[in-house]
Amino acid sequence: MPRLLVSVRSVEEAMAALAGGASIIDIKEPDRGPLGRADTAVWQAIREALPVGVCLSVALGELPEWTHQPDPAPTGFAGISYRKLGLAEVGADWKTDWANLRKRWREGPAWVAVVYSDWRLAKAPRPDDVLEAAIAVADCTGVLIDTWDKSSRSTVDHSWLPWFARAHQAGLTIALAGGLNESRIERLASLAPDWIAVRGAACCDGDRRSAIDPARVARLAHLLENLR
Questions:
Q1: Counted domains in the chain
Q2: Distance between CA 176 and CA 196 in Å, rounded?
Q3: Which of 21, 72, 177, 205 lies at a CB distance of 3.0 to 4.6 Å from 197, suitable for a disulfide?
Q4: CB 38 within 8 Å of CB 28
Q5: Strands, E assignment, 9-109
Q6: Which stretches of the chain score pLDDT less than 70?
């Protein structure tokens, strides 16, 4: 059964997601892009508010953004299990740039590589190339399949079965996101993602910029339970 990941932007949203049955709380700021980074003070506030043992992940924006801003303090990642960094608008040397950033930040939460299903629009690497890179590095534990353009849904369908199989054979965890709703989750369940990652589907009126609705989270959690 896949676990439910809900992206939140505040302590109040984190508590609502947890009350609804989310297994993983992901911290991001939707107004800053598909993987918009929330302020580290928000990370800290959410970590301190949630019970010990709740799994947390953080979105870190896109790789090119970190060429113009200071690195986060190592202590900022305390209590975080996973970190995700997008690859939109990277150059040809993105693998080297990604490796240098991971080396610079040293130890910390496990990395989740990000695949954009609309990779051409995002000017991001091909999904196969990201998967190869994720398999090749020891500090990457999973891959997230998401959409860069949040006005459209993911193009992931059952033709991705070999891709999912390869990732699982390599021991990677797969998080599936990208405009998912209940019907799409049911249709794509046979791909066997380990996490179902949502924001809009868990928000009031399905609007990703609205507040998290615990009743919507509960429906999604119930759906995943029934997929067992």
A1: 1
A2: 5
A3: 177
A4: yes
A5: 24-27, 55-62, 82-86
A6: 228
What is the rounded CA–CA span in Å between residue 142 and residue 110? 8
Dump pLDDT digits (tens) for 107-151: 899 999 999 999 999 999 999 999 999 999 999 999 999 999 988
Q: Give the whole-angstrom CA distance, residue 188 versus residue 224.
A: 12
d(CA 43, CA 181): 26
The model's pTM is 0.94
- Please report, for the domain that includes residue 168, its CATH number: 3.20.20.380
Name which of 112, 147, 148, 103 is nearest 130 in CA terms. Answer: 112
Residue ranges with strand state E in the chain: 3-8, 24-27, 55-62, 82-86, 110-116, 140-146, 173-176, 195-198
Token duo for residue 96: 């080297």
DSSP 92: T
Distance (Å, whole) CA 168 – CA 164: 6
- pLDDT at residue 43, rounded to an integer: 95
d(CA 91, CA 75): 30
Cβ-based neighbour number of residue 193 at 10 Å: 24
Eight-state DSSP code of residue 203:
B
Compute the Cα dihedral for 158, 174, 88, 13 and give only its sign.
positive
Question: Which residue range(s) make up the domain with 15?
Answer: 3-226
> How far, in Å, are 41, 93, 165, 175 from residue 125 at the CA level?
31, 11, 20, 18
Distances in whole angstroms, Cα of residue 90 to Cα of each of 4, 75, 83, 186: 29, 27, 18, 33
